[in-house]
Amino acid sequence: MADRTAAAPKARTKSIKRYNKYGYIFLIPFAAAFIIFQLIPLVQTVYNSFFENYKSGLKMIGPNFIGLDNYKTLFASGDFLIYFKNTMIMWVMGFIPQMAVALLLAAWFTDVSLRLKGQRFFKTVIYMPNLIMASAFALLFFTLFSDNGPVNSFMIQLGLISKPYQFLAHIGSTRWLIAFMNFLMWFGNTTILLMAGMMGIDTSLFEAAEVDGATSTQIFWRITMPLLRPITVYVLITSLIGGLQMFDVPQILTDGSGDPMRSSMTLIMYLNKHLYSKNYGMAGALSVILLIITGILSLIVFKFTASKQVES
Amino acid sequence: MRNRGKKILALGVAAAMAFSMAACGSTSDTSQSSDTSASTDTSSTSTDTSASTDTSSADEGKVLNICVWNNEFPNRMKDHYPGFEAADPEDSTKGGKIGDVTVNFIVTDNQGGQYQTKLDEKLGAQDSAAADDKVDMFLVEADYARKYVDADANVAMPLEDLGITADDLSKQYKYTQDIVSDANGKIRGTSWQACSAGLIYNRAIAKQVLGSDDPTAVQEAVKDWATFNETAEKMKAANYKMTSTVGDTFRVYSNNISGPWVQDGKIVVDPNCKQWVDDSKKLVDEGLTTTNDLWTDEWKAGFQAPGDVFCYFGPAWLINFSMGNDPSKEDDGSIAHAGGWGLCNGPQGYYWGGSWICAAVGTDNASLVKDIMLKMTTDNDVMKSIATADSDCVNNKEVLAELASSDEGNNAVLGGQNPYQQLADGAEKVDMSNTTQYDQACVEDFQSSMMNYFNGNATYDEALQQFYKSVMEKHPELTPAE
Predict the structure, then answer these.
(1) Cα radius of gyration (chain A)
(2) What is d(CA A70, CA A82) in angstroms, rounded to the nearest whole number?
(3) Among residues 49-68 of chain A, which lie with CB inside 8 Å of chain B?
(4) Which element (helix H / strand E) includes A56?
(5) Cβ distance A135 to A248 under 8 Å?
(6) Interface contact flag, B147 A57, Cβ < 8 Å
(7) By CB atoms within 10 Å of each CB, which of A54, A198, B69, B390 scores lowest?
(8) Angle, to 10 degrees, between the axis of helix A225-244 and the axis of helix A171-199?
(9) Range of A43's domain?
């Protein structure tokens, strides 16, 4: 926007300024909703995080100002780091296959020379899992992988195992299930984003490479990948922010316990644990830390997309 | 490209906002739907009363608001309270009339603590609410009863303040009164159910392994935990499971603790609960039980014939409603349909479930509330009809004794066995003097934390630490015992 107004002749800036007020009018609904539903709660959360304030039975304890004690408790117990680690492990386990499969599919879908049939159909199908509610999806997996569930009986009938494998009683299998679900739900979305990025690359570059005798592998690694970097970074950071907020899938799959031994408990599930006692203080402190982490990550995205604009 | 992206983004943001607003709207709608119907009734009746006689027609309110979580109590009211005219005979939760008083049921689902949230909100606004909007009665379950009968919280009226005497309650079982007694020993609630429970065994397996399916003979084989575990070994030899899951026995152990879960702000694990951990670990390791949760398909698997689970633990309602169709209904392949279960007392007495009626402080219908409490929870005729019509094991020693000695009490699911003597004996043995307001958290978290130990993902001490941590998240004021 900014560069276009600068380029416009001075005579037109006045009339543009006159029209600008409509822009502000149209912004009012958003701004109002943002301030009421986002900004005020945000400020309140920060404020609450400095108080001891929770419910015990029907009695409300606090609010008593305790400074940074909530933050201290959060870090002193080591819980925060454990749940942060869990969240990151499960995110990485899901993100790597998600990226790999999405890149492969995007490359195939955008490659004109392949002339893939039924592209529309497959693009729709791979996006489908994202349309299912995460909780329904998690419940489906819970049933599929339960002790007497279809997966176990299938494997027993094939003779692979002699007695049911308790998927949710083992740390590895529980984490893999969660990662797998996140992968299934999001690889379609990533594919679409990467495809958009790949289609934005000038086809003459591919043609030139082909004329120069480059193989398709070389084209992918030497031309597609470097030019796709802005999109890849965008996907990475947004997925990381989404991953930090991982909640519904592990919550439903483990019934909120994050078991075995809380190895699948994510940060937001831990936040949710404070709901029972209405512990505004601790929950506030946890939210503020999450806000800071997410803020830093968003700044990276912002920096990245901004610099791209200057280049173009 | 960029413009389109922005348009899509704008559309997305707009959609997200619309969605979040719609979501807000719909939730508030559902949560209030039961209220709105109530409040419209309220306003119409309240104008009536204020316009016409307000001093002469008794000084009591014309609207009775009752908070419940399902249609169980509304159904009992509709079917058994004399003079209750249901507004809709098909759906008791629509309320009705008792004389010229309108009865409203405020129904909030129990799932995920919603009922308590709603109740807290309602009771918190009790002082400021208009007379006809005040909660007059509410129901509670055992796990969180302590929270509402707490003397300091003072939200449930002591029964003696309503004019209900110890004499009125003399036919009730003591444990049902212990659960709703405050620290000063004042009873603040009353129940029509005595959900004492026993050990429900598979008769075919009992015959094969123990040589008899007679309740007294089976009771000999499970009379205490040591004998119970010896019998488990015999089951192992015959390739059967002793219980379906570790959760089956937990309530039996935890109902018989020697001291409360929380003492002086410290979380204490009772020796009997430690015993459950040790016994269960052994059973799990030997494949005699599983670590599945109650109510899962895996837990229910033993309900179907022929069944590989020797016993379940449960009260009358489990036998009558949860284990399959009774023999008079369609064949669903369950052991219940074949009348293949038997009942004995088991290693220790315990109870499972039950609803208590409390009178809300601030009610403007005290005498009606008193009458409902007396009729529904102490009147022999009403309770007999509840027992025969709804198969509730009623909280009335005389009625249970009568049923135990007549064929009316015979149960088809139990192959014609009359369970009432055992249930009545069991109810006498239940000791619930050790309940605290922290029980729900302690009981739930203890079981889920110990699953990690049973499954081999943690040592006992690690699992114990996780238990402390989970309880402290729910009750930050508590600390672990040393």
Answers:
(1) 25
(2) 17
(3) 54, 56-59, 61
(4) strand A51-56
(5) yes
(6) yes
(7) B390
(8) 140
(9) 2-48
Residues 280-309 of A with CB under 8 A from B: 282
- Chain B CA closest to residue A33: B17
A299 occurs within a structural domain: yes
Q: What is the pTM of this model?
A: 0.82
Tokens of B339: 């009348």
Which amino acid would we find at residue B129?
A
Chain A residue at shortest CA distance from B465: A261
A131 and chain B in contact, CB less than 8 A: no
Estimate to the nearest angstrom the gap between the alpha carbon of B197 and the chain centroid: 13
Closest residue on chain A to B461 (Cα): A261
Pairing between β-strand B241-243 and β-strand B309-315 as defined by DSSP bridges: parallel
Q: Which domains does chain B have, with CATH numbers?
A: 58-194+354-403 (3.40.190.10), 196-351+434-480 (3.40.190.10)
- Asked, for residue A59, whether it belongs to a domain, the answer is no
Which residues, at least 6 apart from A117, have a Cβ–Cβ distance to it below 8 Å? none
What pLDDT tens digit does each residue of chain B (482 aa) get? 445 555 555 555 555 555 444 444 333 333 333 443 333 343 333 333 333 333 333 568 889 999 999 888 999 999 999 989 988 888 888 989 998 899 999 999 887 778 988 998 899 888 888 888 899 999 999 888 988 998 888 999 999 999 999 899 999 999 999 999 988 889 999 999 998 899 999 999 999 999 999 999 999 999 999 999 999 999 999 999 999 999 999 999 999 999 999 999 999 999 999 999 999 999 999 999 999 888 888 899 999 988 899 999 999 888 888 888 888 888 888 999 999 999 999 999 899 988 999 999 999 999 999 999 999 999 999 999 998 888 788 999 999 999 988 888 888 889 889 888 888 888 888 888 888 888 888 998 999 999 999 999 999 999 999 999 999 998 999 999 86
Whether A61 is covered by a domain: the verdict is no
Angle between helices A225-244 and A280-311 (to 10 degrees): 170
A259's tokens: 């078991």
Give yes or no: residues A304 and A214 share one domain: yes
Start-to-end C-alpha separation, chain B: 65
Q: Which amino acid is at B142?
A: A
Instruction: Tell me which chain B residues have a C-beta less than 8 angstroms from the C-beta of A145.
Output: none
Please, which residues bridge with residue B350 across strands?
B197
| C-alpha distance from A213 to closest chain B C-alpha (Å) | 31
In a domain, A65, yes or no: no
CB of A166 within 8 Å of a chain B CB? The answer is yes
Of A77, A170, A257, the CB nearest to B448: A257
Three-class secondary structure of residue B290 per DSSP: strand
Can you give the C-alpha Rg of chain B in angstroms?
A: 25
Q: How many CB pairs under 8 A join A and B?
A: 81
Chain A CA closest to residue B292: A147
Q: What angle do CA B374, B379, B382 make, to 5 degrees?
A: 115
* B100 contacts: CB under 8 Å, gap ≥ 6: B57, B62
The H or E element containing residue B196 is strand B196-202
Q: Are residues A26 and A168 in the same domain?
A: no
Query: Minimal Cα distance from B439: which residue of A?
Result: A57
Q: Got the DSSP string for A57-72?
A: TTEEEEEEE-TTHHHH
Q: Measured in whole angstroms, how far is the alpha carbon of residue B47 from the centre of its chain?
A: 38
Select from B198, B248, B252, B191 the least CA-distant residue to B392.
B191
d(CA B368, CA B371): 5
In residues, how long is chain A? 312
Question: How far, in Å, are A9, A24, A119, A146, B316 from residue A12 at the CA level?
Answer: 6, 19, 46, 68, 84
Contact B473 A276 (CB under 8 A): yes
| CA max distance for chain A | 83
Tokens coding B125: 């606004």
In this prediction, does ipTM exceed 0.90? no
